Amino acid sequence: MFRTLDVHKSRCSQVQKLNVQKSKSLHVQKPRRLEVQMLRSPDVQKSRYLEVQLFRGRNVQNSKCSEVQMFRSPDVQKFRCSKVKMFKSLDIQNLRYSKLKMFKS
Question: What is the top-level taxon of the source organism (predicted)?
Answer without folding.
Answer: Eukaryota
